[in-house]
Design brief:
The structure holds three protein chains of three kinds.
Chain A: E1 8-20, E2 23-35, E3 40-44, H1 51-58, E4 66-71, H2 81-88, E5 91-94, H3 98-101, H4 108-119, H5 124-137, H6 154-166, E6 172-176, H7 184-201, E7 204-209, H8 212-218, E8 221-226, E9 229-235, H9 236-241, H10 246-254, H11 296-300, E10 306-309, E11 312-314, H12 328-336
Parallel strand pairs in A: 3-7, 3-8, 5-6, 6-7
Antiparallel strand pairs in A: 1-2, 1-4, 8-9, 9-11, 10-11
Helix pairs in contact in A: 4-5, 4-6, 5-6, 6-7
Chain B: E1 10-21, E2 24-36, E3 41-45, H1 52-60, E4 68-76, E5 79-80, H2 86-92, E6 97-100, H3 114-125, H4 130-143, H5 149-152, H6 162-174, E7 180-184, H7 192-209, E8 212-217, H8 220-226, E9 229-234, E10 237-243, H9 244-249, H10 254-261, E11 310-311, E12 317-318, H11 334-337
Parallel strand pairs in B: 3-8, 3-9, 6-7, 7-8
Antiparallel strand pairs in B: 1-2, 1-4, 4-5, 9-10, 10-12, 11-12
Chain C: H1 3-33, H2 38-43, H3 49-59, H4 65-76, H5 91-125, H6 131-145, H7 148-162, H8 178-212, H9 215-222, H10 227-265, H11 270-279, H12 283-311
Helix pairs in contact in C: 1-12, 5-6, 5-8, 5-10, 6-8, 7-8, 7-10, 8-10, 10-11, 10-12, 11-12
The chains are: A alpha/beta, B alpha/beta, C mainly alpha.
Chain lengths: ~325, ~350, ~325
């Protein structure tokens, strides 16, 4: 898998926000990873982890303050302004709240067509046709074309957002909590749709979410973020079954899984304390203030980002030596299979 | 029916809620019935718009009297709350039944300290001095796991994190040691690790105080962790009621089964998720007969007639005429669940 | 008073400086645009051009405008608002002599607006969409629309000329004869207050409706607090910020409206002084009055800002 050219990559990426004269928020701090063509890459994190900022940086909605974002090995910021605008069409985002993403005064057809109108590369009739095709592809019948967002359910609106992104034929779609606001039965529908579209168009997804069930289901590989840093990354199976970082372990065990009491296997780890302020993260390992395994070394020295097992990275001094447990999510997959 | 042996703490009997809409009325919930034993943890589960929050607010008597109307009975240890005068009902709230809400930020008054908000609850129901109220509020803060409770007493809501605010909210709700707590999506706005902390605190306090909890949520995982019994609602009606472990393994209503099967964690990675086709019917335009029938894979001719909620053997209740004959998958495939 | 509040006062006081400069520059500039020449007015109708030029030189009016301004400001900050062109009297004395009359009707108007507007606002908010609310909101809309000088004339016609309950015109000193001063001030204050009553009623009503339908008020009901307690303790404290803002606004507006009201009631206040001086091109007096009024308004706003930080813990955050 290393032979392939990554479609999206980051190299020591940092996105910093200056909050006041002497406070800088490093929302994303020295993050490096590769996303390969056609894969689904999950990014898991809680609020304040910087996952949304990272997602925005990946599609050039946020300029890097340090390091680089690479698209097919090239730095998009080396392109001219016009080229960059065109280049961006390849890299699209679907957001959590379809209500905020759709103009209530625009018909569904116009909303779906809008990216094409902005790009202005085709005649009007062709744009309508492409938009209608995209709508059909996401399962919206043609009679939706003339309707307005308020006439649609949450799931249908999210379909509209997906159709709209599809019109530009992107190669990468960043889904930022794209199913978080939906009820489970609808969420399942949208996840199925996303999987179908991936197969059909060879899409690459970067799936940003706090929901482990979702990320575990659709991702090939996952990365876990904590306070702006990656703490773990690897094949989804490996991360769920043998988490290397204590934070991943806590996150996985906190996920409530619908299983009868006698089938629940793993012991829950409940984190103590609160998320430290991302403006002044703890010294050394950022997770040490809430880590049950923390030692003096963790405060003194920042753990290296290292490949503990082939393809399985972690930033913990004691990665691989700690008695961490597998995710109950993974447990279920085994039980169910 | 182990819970029916004792006198139930709460008995909800054919509770229907109506909202005024223009000149007419819209029925939001229909014939909601369930019981809770003292100290029992019951999950009230359903998707958005199914009427679970309205039911919770109705139990509390918090639906606006000018624009809503209730039918049926809500019996708290035999006392009918609907027939009770408003002032008597007010004296029950916060003392015998409490409620916590989804958004811990907007549910707390921003211009009063959390300490004040706890002790005023105490003073509204009990004849205690200011100093004693303060002490008991600090105790309550300590009990919900807020560090340095004496200092936090004087903190304002905006000075606390989301998790701490929800803890403060719990402290307010539990300071009078009620018999029943209604928790309406108390962790939905929180991160998973914080959610785990809050659920932990709630479970521990309920057990210690012998308090019953009605846990309103859309998250079946949370219910399976916290509750022993489960009430599923769909389109304003209770469609299934039973023990959590039973329903997870062998749901008897096609909707319960559909909900469980659509959980991504329970399906093999990358496999197709069994979604429920169609969409929830809108209020005021309900299908005749079984309300789930238009989306149900098992629907037959009898399903077009209205369905009663029927008691099942050995226990539980289902609103489905085919419940006995259908064998529906739960969290496990049918063959594994046997 | 904690350190944060002291810092707040400090920073606000610093902000006063540019505001005062801006306001005085504006008034200086505007007066330059007024047609006519003060020197010509002083010299009289039949004065020669030389005589007018002499007067101009004497008054410093021949110098560039910016220089005139700097000289004026330099004196003003030392408490010397220079002298009237017409009477030669120090402006400050004249302003201070008349200010009590103006402040009396303004403050009285404010008190009336609060005493009447607040209960009306609460009444309407607690009876939303019921007949009481409809009546109150209708009256409030009318109150905003009615011009106060017109109302003043109606009041004079009815209560003073018709019923004879109040004197028609003039003013009296509050310290020497408080009763007579109040009876003189009653009608003009009422005329000034109408807009304020309407404004306070409307703003308080909508703020209180929002608070009473908020999620934290739902929590208060869930805790079993009585409606009265929810309204009077939590409701009012939460709308007090809105109320404070509106009170400040109403005071500023009333102070401005004294120009018309003092004319209607022939009150020797600062409002009528400005009008008279502007007609006579007595610019130093106009500048002096505006300067003093600006200071009063700024002082009041500073006080309101401080009250904010006492009432709302979130204001202190930064």
């Amino acid at each position: 898998m290393t032979a392939q050219q990554p479609l999206v990559a980051t190299r020591d990426l940092g996105v910093h926000f200056r909050l006041s004269r002497n406070t800088v928020l490093k929302a994303v701090d020295r993050v490096s990873f590769d996303v390969l063509p056609g894969e689904t890459f999950g990014i898991i994190g809680e609020s304040g982890s910087g996952k949304t900022t990272l997602g925005r940086a990946l599609v050039c909605l946020e300029a890097p303050s340090a390091g680089q974002v690479l698209h097919q090995g090239r730095d998009p910021y080396e392109l001219s302004r016009r080229q960059l605008r065109q280049h961006r069409r390849n890299y699209q985002v679907v957001f959590q709240d379809p209500n905020a993403a759709l103009d209530p005064r625009m018909t569904i057809l116009r909303s779906v067509r809008e990216p094409l109108d902005v790009a202005a590369t085709m005649p009007r009739a062709q744009r309508d046709e492409v938009a209608m095709q995209a709508m059909e592809r996401v399962g919206l019948s043609p009679d939706f074309a003339a309707r307005y967002p308020h006439e649609l359910s949450g799931g249908q609106k999210q379909r509209v957002c997906i159709a709209r992104v599809l019109t530009l034929r992107p190669s990468v779609i960043v889904c930022d909590e794209a199913v978080a606001a939906l009820d489970v039965s609808i969420q399942a529908d949208i996840l199925n749709l996303l999987a179908d579209l991936q197969r059909e168009f060879g899409l690459t997804y970067i799936f940003i979410t706090h929901n482990l069930g979702v990320v575990g289901h659709i991702s090939d590989r996952v990365a876990v973020m904590y306070l702006g840093r990656l703490v773990e990354m690897g094949e989804t199976e490996a991360v769920l079954a043998r988490p290397l970082h204590p934070y991943t372990n806590a996150l996985l065990s906190a996920e409530p899984v619908a299983l009868p009491s006698h089938m629940r296997t793993s012991q829950r780890v409940i984190l103590s304390g609160e998320l430290p302020s991302p403006v002044s993260p703890p010294s050394g390992c950022r997770f040490r203030t809430r880590c049950r395994f923390a030692q003096d070394l963790c405060a003194a020295k920042e753990p290296e980002w290292s490949e503990v097992e082939p393809g399985h990275w972690a930033a913990c001094h004691f990665a691989g030596t700690l008695p961490v447990t597998s995710s109950p999510v993974h447990g279920v997959a085994e039980v169910v299979a | 029916m182990d819970h029916a042996v004792k006198q139930p703490l709460l008995e909800v009997n054919k509770l229907s809620a109506f909202f005024r809409a223009g000149r007419g009325e819209v029925q939001v919930t229909r014939d909601v019935s369930f019981t809770m034993a003292p100290g029992e943890m019951v999950g009230l589960v359903g998707e958005s718009g199914c009427g679970k929050t309205v039911t919770g607010l109705a139990l509390m008597g918090l639906l606006p009297p000018a624009s809503s109307r209730l039918e049926g009975k809500i019996l708290l240890q035999g006392q009918d709350l609907i027939a009770m005068p408003p002032s008597a009902k007010r004296r029950l709230r916060g003392r015998r039944i409490s409620m916590i809400f989804q958004e811990p930020m907007s549910a707390l008054d921003p211009v009063f300290t959390i300490g004040h908000q706890i002790s005023e609850t105490l003073r509204a129901h009990q004849d205690v001095s200011r100093a004693e109220a303060r002490n008991r509020a600090i105790e309550a803060l300590a009990r919900v796991g807020i560090p340095e409770p004496t200092l936090r007493y004087d903190a304002y809501p905006h000075q606390l994190s989301g998790g701490m605010r929800q803890r403060a909210m719990i402290a307010i709700a539990l300071v009078c040691e009620p018999q029943l707590l209604i928790a309406d999506e108390p962790t939905t706005a929180l991160d998973v690790t914080v959610q785990a902390q809050i659920v932990d605190v709630l479970g521990e306090l309920c057990a210690r105080m012998g308090m019953a909890m009605l846990f309103i949520t859309h998250d079946l995982g949370l219910v399976s962790q916290t509750c022993s019994r489960l009430v599923t609602m769909y389109a304003g009606e209770v469609v299934e009621e039973g023990r959590v472990d039973d329903i997870l393994l062998r749901p008897r209503h096609p909707y319960s089964s559909g909900l469980l099967r659509s959980l991504p964690a329970l399906t093999q990675r990358k496999a197709r998720l069994p979604a429920i086709p169609g969409r929830v019917p809108v209020r005021g335009d309900m299908p005749p007969g079984c309300r789930f029938q238009p989306r149900c894979a098992h629907a037959q001719l009898p399903c077009t007639a209205p369905q009663p909620l029927r008691a099942m053997q050995p226990q539980g209740e289902v609103r489905c005429c085919r419940a006995e004959e259908l064998i529906l998958p739960g969290v496990l495939p049918v063959e594994r669940a046997a | 008073m904690n350190r944060r509040q002291l810092l707040l006062i400090g920073s606000r006081l610093l902000q006063v400086v540019p505001v005062v400069i801006l306001a005085t520059v504006a008034i200086f500039g505007l007066l330059q645009l007024v047609p006519g020449d003060p020197a010509a007015v002083i010299a009289g109708e039949y004065a020669t051009a030389e005589r007018i030029a002499d007067i101009r030189r004497m008054l410093g009016l021949d110098r560039p405008v910016w220089e005139q301004y700097v000289v004026w400001l330099g004196h003003a900050v030392q408490g010397d608002l220079s002298a009237s062109l017409i009477t030669g009297q120090p402006v400050l004395d004249e302003v201070l002599r008349r200010l009590p009359n103006t402040l009396l009707i303004t403050v009285l108007a404010l008190v009336l607006a609060v005493l009447i507007g607040v209960p009306l606002g609460i009444l309407a908010a607690t009876r939303v969409d019921r007949p009481t609310d409809r009546i109150v909101t209708t009256i409030a809309s009318l109150g905003v629309a009615v011009p106060n000088f017109w109302l003043g004339m109606i009041l004079v016609g009815f209560f003073a000329l018709g019923l004879g309950w109040f004197p028609t015109t003039g003013a009296a000193s509050l310290t020497q004869d408080p009763l007579r001063a109040l009876s003189h001030a009653a009608l003009p204050a009422l005329a000034l207050a109408t807009g304020g009553i309407a404004e306070i009623t409307r703003q308080l009503r909508s703020a209180l409706i929002e608070v009473l339908s908020s999620q934290y008020v739902r929590t208060l009901h869930a805790k079993g607090l009585s409606n009265a307690r929810i309204l009077w303790q939590h409701g009012l404290k939460n709308v007090s910020l809105t109320l404070l803002t509106v009170v400040g606004l109403v005071f500023n507006r009333a102070l401005g409206a004294t120009v018309a009201i003092e004319a209607v009631f022939a009150i020797p206040g600062t409002g009528s002084l400005v009008v008279a001086s502007a007609t006579n091109k007595d610019f130093p007096v106009v500048q002096g009055v505006v300067f003093v009024l600006v200071l009063i308004v700024i002082g009041l706003n500073l006080m309101i800002d401080l009250l904010y930080s006492l009432l709302d813990p979130r204001v202190n955050r930064r």
